[in-house]
Fold this protein.
Amino acid sequence: MRIIVKTCGVLLCAMIFSRAETPIGGILRQISFVHSGNPYIVIQDLVIPKNVEVKIGEGCVFLFQPFTSIKVEGRLIVEGSRMNPVIFTSTYDTAYNAESRQLANPFDWNGIHLEEGCGAILKDFLLQYSVFGIKAVHRNITIRNGIFKKNGQCHLTIAEKQEVVIEGSPFTYIPEGSNEQYDNSLDEKPGAPVKAEQAKKKASPRIVARWSSFGAGIAAAGAGIGMTVAAVKAARDVAWIEQNQLDYIGRHGTDAYETEHQRRADAYKRMLVPAILLDALGAIGFTVTFATFLF
């Protein structure tokens, strides 16, 4: 009997330990989060007031319930590492919450918002399934090796400008005025210092492809619509002369009918093929434009 009681006690303790979690929310004071409190369940907005510094240590996992966020008015320090990044994700993320009965999706929680006058340094973290990722109203933010995935509207906005972030790839942002920038391309090791101009050049092909395909799509679609309207008119002309064949022959003769019918049929063919090609090119242009937002 004692053995059974002891065994049950051990199993109960193991179950309690495996389900350990730390619910948090509201205004934060000077605090340092450590991974032993994992997972931190954010049940309402976390607010870091002015003159308050909050540190988040490596390996910490924050699971955000719907409509919650982090609002920074003071200073936020995220100190993840390559081996143990800090995780900001949805409470429905089964990778970090095995008990979730539904799957995580973009827009599950709001994101991290940096107010005017605050500061933030974020290193080695994963942020996913939010609405806007990180939104800073100023440029007083440093990001090193941050990974953004599956966020709804955007990954990163700084001073009302959406930054070019490759989803799932380590991203680094250094405020303007720093002596070096960091390359975020897939073919370079994250954190390798390069000139700011080089970083912009590597980030620009997607932007060029996006707007070039959009412009080509608009032009092709516009021309295609015009050709389609002309083709429809030509088709109606052919249909009219075929419907009035006997009357036309009676007035103008058989040879005149054959000549006019052939002329109208040729005009229809000349309009139809370009209309189809231009409409297809417009669809391809819009598809490429849309794809640059996804990949």
